[in-house]
Amino acid sequence: MDELTAAHRTLPFGTLIRVDNRDSGRAVELRVTDRGPFAKGRILDVSRAGARALGMIGPGTARVRVTVVRPGGDLVAARGGCVVVQVAAHRDRATAESRAAELRAAGYPSMVEPAGDWYRVTVGPYDAPREAAAARDALDGFVRTCP
Question: Which uninterrupted H or E stretch holds 135?
Fold first, then answer.
């Protein structure tokens, strides 16, 4: 409870996530190490250290945005490899998140990767560059290896 960790129902253990407190503007990176939450309407349980970093100790809950920073090893293995198609890069996080949501709605596994002052929107991962070619062609992106 004194480490920067979180519990999520489906993200693989080891996944690094960024949690933004939408009310306070505070953010922290946490590692998924447990399953939960099991309370209705909640998407994430954070450790005491995470709650402290997010300014949630008093209220106990907060409206948050969760972004996958680095998939856990199990997620990469489950989804097939470590080649992605980069579709876009935006300076505005909300724009990148919106584009990733559009891609997910269209059936592409998509995530946002922070990269300095930019947010990269990627689909995949795939086993090999040739397997990523159809997504690259359909989405006008380019193939690269996972970070």
Answer: helix 129-139
